[in-house]
Amino acid sequence: MNYETIKRNYDRGLWSRAMVKMAVKKGVITQAQYREIVGEESA
Q: What global pTM score does this model have?
């Protein structure tokens, strides 16, 4: 799993914001990458 895969899955509607946030918590992507994917700050 990497940034590109997560972004593609989010853009296709396969991943929710919560799933992307979990990837941040697990250290797969950074907070900055989260913002790029979902277009807003993490709560």
A: 0.86
